[in-house]
Amino acid sequence: MAIDIRLLAEWEPQAAILLALPHSSTDWSEVLKQAYNQYTKLIEALLKHNYNVILLKPEQEDINDWLKSLSCNQDRLFQVEATYNDTWTRDYGPITIRKNGELRALDFGFNGWGLKFAADKDNLINYNLAVKNIISSVLYRNNRDFELEGGSIETDGQGTLLTTSKCLCSPNRNGGKTKQELTEILHKRLGVSHILWLDYGALAGDDTDSHIDTLARMAPDDTILFVGCRDVQDEHFEELLKMRAQLTLFRTPEGKPYNLIELPLPDPIYDSNGMRLPATYANYLITDRHIFMPTYGQPEKDLLASQTIRIAFPNHQIVGVDCTTLILQHGSLHCATMQLYPGETFI
Q1: In what order do the strands lie in the sheet with 5-7?
Q2: What are the backbone dihedrals phi and psi of residue 193, each rounded to the nearest 5 degrees, phi first?
Q3: CA-CA distances (angstroms) from residue 151 to 17, 121, 217, 225, 285?
Q4: What is the pLDDT of residue 2?
Q5: 346 assigned to some structural domain
Q6: Strand 160-164 and strand 194-198: pairing?
Q7: Are 117 and 209 in contact, with CB atoms under 8 Å apart?
Q8: Residue 207 CB coordination number (10 Å)
Q9: Is-contact 59 82, C-beta < 8 A?
Q10: What pLDDT does residue 212 have?
C-alpha cells in the first residue's frame, strides 16, 4: 500500500499555540522584566482572539504575580512546567504531518542552530511533553536522528516545501548533506514532492543560517511573500536582490511562476553594542483566521507590511504585536511560537 504523507500548512485550523516563557537561566536574564512585558503583549494578543496557549514555564517557578498582569481572560491559557534552554519553540517544537490520514507529531533533532548555543534541554521538550501527554503520546514520533528546525521550512500543505540551502545544507546540522540527499530525506519524512531551494538571502544578526521564516513565506494560491530591499545603500540590498531574482525563476509543480509579493524591510534596528538585529516582517504567525505580525515601532513600515500581507490573506485579520523586545535576542514572533493541530494535544 502506498504511504500518503502530507506536511500541514500553517493556515489550517489549529488547536493551540506553544510558547516558552523567558526565565533567569535563559539569555533573557539581563532584560527579564522587558521580556516578561514582551510575552504579555504576545499572549494577550492570542488570548483576546480566542486562541489556546500552552505556556511552558520553568519548573517550580512562581509566575502568579506576572499572570495577574494579563488583562484578558485566562481560561485558554494552560501552564506546563518544563526545563528548557531558550524560548524559541518554533525550532524545537513538533512538526506536524498527516500519514495515511492520521496526525503525527514529529520530534526532529535540534542542536542550537548548528551547535551555536546550548540546546540539550530544548532537544528533549517534545519527548517530555509527550510523556505528560501535552502532545499526544500516541501521535508522537521520535525523528531526532535528523536535525530540522521549524523555522527552516515553509509549505503550502500541498506537497511543496520552500527552504534555504544555507541552513539545511549546513555542515553543523546534518553533516553537510547535498540537496539531493536532503530532498530524499524530506520526501520520506515529510511527504514533500516539490522542493524550492533558495540559495540567497541573509539578514545581519541572524543566528539561524538564513531560516526561511525570516526571508520568504508561502501563502495559498501559489503565492510567496518575500522580504525586499529598495535602499541601494543598505547592506542587504545585493543579497535580497539575488533572492528576488531566484524567486522569479521558481515554478509550481504545474510549471507556472509563483505570485510574488514583496514585503518591506524594517528600518535598521541595533542592539546596545551597535550590532544590527535581524528584524523582518516575514516572521509572522499564520492561523486559519488571523495573521499575528511583528511590529517594530516604525508606523509607516509597520502599516505597509500589514497592508502587504493582507493582499495574500484577504480574509484574515492582521494583528500587530510589538516585537521591539523580542528582536533583542535575534528572533521575532514566528520564532517564539509553534502551532499544534486538533487532536495533537490534550486541548
Answers
A1: 5-7, 95-99, 102-109, 140-147
A2: -115, -10
A3: 15, 18, 10, 15, 11
A4: 65
A5: no
A6: parallel
A7: no
A8: 15
A9: yes
A10: 98
Surface-to-core class of residue 62, CB atoms within 10 Å of its CB (0-12 exposed, 13-18 middle, 19+ buried): exposed
The number of beta carbons lying within 10 Å of the beta carbon of residue 347 is: 14
Tell me the CATH number at 63: 3.75.10.10
SS3 214: helix
For residue 209, give its domain range: 5-340
Return the ∠ at Cα 7 (arms to 163 and 344), rounded to 5°.
125
Instruction: Write out the three cell numbers for 172.
Output: 553543523
Report CA torsion sign: 322, 325, 330, 336. negative
Give me the sheet containing 16-20, strands edge to edge. 77-82, 53-58, 16-20, 338-340
pLDDT average, residue stretch 60-84: 90
Residue 206 within any structural domain of the chain:
yes
* pLDDT band at 60; cut points 50, 70, 90: confident
- Segment 28-53, tens digit of pLDDT: 999 999 999 999 999 999 999 999 99
Cell numbers describing residue 326: 523580542
Q: Does the residue 60 lie in any domain?
A: yes
Residues 151 and 140: their CA atoms lie apart, in Å, by: 20
Residue with cell 532584560: 31
**In DSSP terms, which residues pair with 291 in a beta bridge?**
286, 318
Check: CB of residue 87 under 8 Å from CB of residue 20: yes
- Work out the number of other CB atoms within 10 angstroms of the CB of residue 325: 19
pLDDT in tens, 214-235: 999 999 999 999 999 999 999 9
Task: Read off the DSSP letter of residue 38.
Answer: H
Per the domain annotation, does 70 fall within a domain? yes
Show the 3-state SS of 167-178: HHCCHHHHCCCC
Instruction: Provide the number of structural domains found in the chain.
Output: 1
